[in-house]
Amino acid sequence: MALKIVKGSIDRMFDKNLQDLVRGIRNHKEDEAKYISTCIDEIKQELKQDNIAVKANAVCKLTYLQMLGYDVSWAAFNIVEVMSSSKFTYKRIGYLAASQCFHENTDVIMLTTNQIRKDLSSPNQYDTGVALTGLSCFVTPDLARDLANDIMTLMSHTKPYIRKKAVLIMYKVFLKYPESLRPAFPRLKEKLEDPDPGVQSAAVNVICELARRNPKNYLSLAPLFFKLMTSSTNNWVLIKIIKLFGALTPLEPRLGKKLIEPLTNLIHSTSAMSLLYECVNTVIAVLISLSSGMPNHSASIQLCVQKLRILIEDSDQNLKYLGLLAMSKILKTHPKSVQSHKDLILQCLDDKDESIRLRALDLLYGMVSKKNLMEIVKKLMIHVDKAEGTTYRDELLTKIIDICSQSNYQYITNFEWYISILVELTRLEGTRHGHLIASQMLDVAIRVKAIRVFAVAQMATLLDNAHLLTGNMQRNGICEVLYAAAWICGEFSEHLENPVQTLEAMLRPKVATLPGHIQAVYVQNAAKLFATILKNQEGNTDSTAAQETSQMMIDRLPLFVQSANLEVQERASCILQLVKYIQKLQQKDVEVAEEVSALFAGELNPVAPKAQKKVPVPEGLDLDAWINEPPSESESEDEQPKAIFTKEEPKHSRPRHTEVDEKELARRREARKQEQANNPFYIKASPSSQKVYQEAPGVEHIPVVQIDLSVPLKVPATTPSHPTGLPMSDQYVKLEEERRQKERAEKKKKEKKKRKEKRSGRGKKHDSGPESEEDITPAHVVDIVTEEMPENALPSDDDDKDPNDPHKALDIDLDNLLETTARRPLADSEKLPVRSHRAAGAPKSSAEDGEAENATPQEPKKKSSKEKRDKKKDKERDRKRSKEEKKKKKHKHEEKEEDLLGGQAEEPVVQSEETKEVEAQPTSTSAEVSDLDFWLSNAPVPSNTQEAATVAEAAPAPEAPAGTAADSEPEEPKDTETEESKSSKHKKKKQKKEKEEKEKKKKKKHHHHHHHSDGGGEESVQNGTVEEEEPLPPMSNYCLLAENSYIKMVCDIQGNLQDGSQVVVSVIFENKSDSFLKSMEFNVLDSLNSKLQRPEGSGPHDGLTVPFQLPPGVSNEARFVFTVQSIVMPQKLKGTLTFIVKNEDSSTHEKLDFKLHFTCTSYLITTPCYSDAFAKLLESGDLKSSSVRLEGVNMPFHHLLARICFHHHFSVVERIDSCASMYSRSIQGHHVCLLVKTSGQTVSIDAKCDEPTLLGNVLDEIKQTFSQC
Amino acid sequence: MIKAILIFNNHGKPRLIRFYQYFHQAAQDTSYCKAEDMQQQIIRETFHLVSKRDDNVCNFLEGGSLIGGSDYKLIYRHYATLYFVFCVDSSESELGILDLIQVFVETLDKCFENVCELDLIFHMDKVHYILQEVVMGGMVLETNMNEIVAQVEVQNRMEKSEGGLSAAPARAVSAVKNMNLPEIPRNINIGDINIKVPSLSPF
């Protein structure tokens, strides 16, 4: 019986499929976790089975568990197994699981490369489809690099189903492997006009994603997209294109002009709301880009606003939301047209939908003016009271503060009102924004001097009623307000009406429950208060009162001395001792008030938050330099602060200024203050009197004074309980209205008076008439102190672009690629790597990736140096000529250059016009720009457009097949010429030019070299042609390995940057025969020191299968990784390549022996080194030196350096005349330093290295190199 | 780009999750968080945001804090017991995505014939396969429902012709029979299974 159950359950166990699992979980609601853990155990069992069906079933279940949050990464390998099943059913399960739980750090992903490649080329389109779908989710940089070529091929698949998937996935490939963008782009562009709408849509999709991040590179596609937009009926495609245009128009206003009409048509004609909305959005973007110069642009604005109003009024909440969203975009540039819809937006504040309310709030921010600020804020305050959710209420609170404080309190006319608003806000329960309110209070009190009296009174009340706030203070942040209150009362204590009472309030025992930092402020400011009180009391010659105050301090302070907070404790003890001392003095009847208040003398000025950052670095101070030697480890983490100063250009500038009119305003205020100072009738604000009544009849220039009269400050008596029933701020609103009215009346009167008496008044600043912005004068003499900035601070808004943004890498110039073949053909190095055997740890770091990006724009310069040398003479000639030409008019010169350049210039007339423009910015894109210009400058007649589009297409994008070397050759001189003549414009002196030349050379070297190390592609495709035989092009590191009648092998050996014991050998196999070569096997006899890395499980003598076959005449590259132990000596390894030669009728087995020569050079890695580090290295004394002399070297010095750099992986540290220092590093970290000097034909190389044997060998090899030529 | 697609029910139980971006806790955070945990957190947060909204409010939500950034939006639809939430960035048209959700749900309806939550519960894999024909790698692949349904059906037919996964158990049982029986009990906790098995009630 028991056995039966066991057996049954076993059967069941294997029976359990996904449905059973789900059912089981649903039946075990109470102990789900336990049930699932048993299920996982079962799954583990199933995964151990050999049966792929069982495995697939298990993996399927794991996918479900992954969704529930269980980590299934332990089964990654099993997933790969299921992926590689030949059956579609299982494959699909495998890929699904992989796409759910694989990510870049999953290590088994490496194993999938070949499987995915196989699936991609599967005859079954659904296998391919599934692989593409899966890959789109877990593509890694390695996978992207290895598979880019295969996916490219799929973009031209016969089935649209595959094409569209391949097109879409290219975006992911670009993200991970940006180098693939240029080679793949022509084909991607082709797909924009694919017959299948799905593929077309996919291509649009991808290009839109790309263009969104780097729009300028895609500007030249505008004509094509324009054509698509006018012809397509697919709303999805239209939306994407219209969105794309929205991103492009800011870069090219003329494009916007062209777009307006078709977009307006679409707006009128379409019934799809989504399309309508996107059209409106793009029209807005267009209008923003052409802020002026459009005759009918107000009509377009009106159309947009009107359509948006329809959206906002719609009952569909979604449309309402989007309408508000778009409205806020218009608001930025055309606030007037939005402001007329204020009613509508205020209505939205009452909407039940929080998203909509938040949107409406955003809009309000831009809509306030001096006139309506109080009204809007009043409305918002009502909402604050009504709001239930704390998040929304907090949002309201921040918005109120934002609205009021924007552009330096521009819209606030009455700061008393604002302070009272802030005080009212403190009564919000449970808000998180206490600190925000507090900082506003501080800011206003410090910067608006006139308000201090009022602010201090309010803060004193707040302090007095602190218990009301602190009731639930522990969990909310509102008590932060007390921080501000205490500080304001302390700092401006001279304005306090009853300082003793406030002091008493600040020293209540209850204060001890406040957070530490607030207590600290309390204690400190109690001391300030104390000082003020002493001063007052001593003035009164009332010694007992003063002593009583001291006694109170002494009684209360011990409470704080016992505080757990160190800051509080420290301050309290200090002050306690101080007060005790004062008391002693008091008892001796010594006057102390003077000295005590001297402790807190002086005014604190507000400092702009960015001030510290903006202090310019003094000349000669290098903040990046180490003061002490850096610690050897942990240097990675503290490099961030660097960016602060480096980004800013060291130009002189004025301190930060706010808006111009604000400045103007401040100036006027200043002037007025000056007047007031000289005016005997004007009584300056003093601690006791805020109400200055002034009757002086002729002095009409200060509305302030009159208003002060009208604003009785006693109205807002006590904060928490308002006897009048109205909240205090509301009373202000009322008062303000009255005031404004009065003012208006007053002004009218004045006007009349003026007219009568014909007397020129000083207050004619205000014009009469309907109330305008200017009319509303502030209720106080408001002196908004601008925040202090350091002298010659640097004005800059920190644009914090994310350095990790993957899209930065995709900022690749594609224009030349598209439009002209001459300017910048696809360099060979840019071709996608073809299938090749990859080393497990491919020698490619992310740093190199970055370098590659930097390198791309300079692509044309890094032609193989053989060509360079060939052209050298030409260049020299060109340079002379261009120097002569320099004297001529630049315009002419450019034209000539154009002519030289472009046999392909389609529109010579347009172009010569264009050159003027181009002149200003000597980029090399004039030809392509002119295409676009042509398109843009023409009237938007459809036929014209078509034509232009076809012109754009007519210039065929270079696919650059293997062997373009020949093609690109004739173009080369033009290239260099352009470069030269352009540079000649900038350089005045020949010397300077030469210097730059040198630098350029240096750069070239680096790039050149770099491309060897990374793609290995440069020579890989064109390898066997002419490069190797000729002695002249020595700048290739590929050397002949072996050759017979069937096959030729050339190889390059590079150290692996990441692994000190690895060397990567890239071998290019070229099929020289007419037969098909297959089953190639590469084998090497390992030595003790060097071993070929073989896959796990294979024996030490097994060969490695070369992962491709060679049709006749084709070549391909494979990489092999070797492990080496000692690198100080060169090594030779014997090896064999076996392969099968297949003719149509027969096949023979052939072999080819070779000797692999590991030179010491191949262990060196080009490492840049700064001269100071280099000097330190030489000084350190750890290095052994050696030297060598080369006789009869007959080449220019920079060629010599180039050779050393290139062949021996050095980098130039410094070069002075005919002397240069160079540096390199071995994969095991040996430093190699060279000092190369030349005189005549003799070159002497002094070298230092910490490993003498290695150095000797490297020097021998250098000698060898130069003896060969 | 669509960053994630989440389907969960009115109680926040996930029915399908599909992340097109690898979300994990930033490395500098001391408590490194696994992708799975992060995903669950995102689901919880999203559910929290979405579930408290009435049905008659707008279908857009400014992104949650976890899924990150002001550039992101949650666009969702609520069907009976299920929420379909798409997390997208600003390159997607809001209304377009709403349409897409509709297309997706209608496709599900066609493929499952009157789809209900149970279909999604028991056939998560199939839902994934359908979704794969609509969205790929975070980008919209196909919006034409007929085309989607056609592709899904062809693939289902292929699966059927291969015998599907249902052939697995039979083969599994035979595999068990071929196994050395005495070895099995060692690997399995019999006690547990005895308790568990009877409580499995057939649906």
TrEMBL record, chain B:
Keywords: Cytoplasmic vesicle, Golgi apparatus, Membrane, Protein transport, Transport
Boundaries of every AP complex mu/sigma subunit domain copy: 1-158
Family of the protein in this entry: Belongs to the adaptor complexes small subunit family.
Job description of the protein: Part of the AP-3 complex, an adaptor-related complex which is not clathrin-associated. The complex is associated with the Golgi region as well as more peripheral structures. It facilitates the budding of vesicles from the Golgi membrane and may be directly involved in trafficking to lysosomes. In concert with the BLOC-1 complex, AP-3 is required to target cargos into vesicles assembled at cell bodies for delivery into neurites and nerve terminals.
Compartment list: Cytoplasmic vesicle membrane; Golgi apparatus
SUPFAM superfamilies: SNARE-like (SSF64356)
Signal sequence bounds: none
One GO BP annotation of this record: intracellular protein transport
Membrane topology, from the record: Peripheral membrane protein
Example of a GO cellular component annotation carried by this entry: AP-3 adaptor complex
Name recorded for this polypeptide: AP complex mu/sigma subunit domain-containing protein
PANTHER family in UniProt: ADAPTOR COMPLEXES SMALL SUBUNIT FAMILY
Coiled coil: none
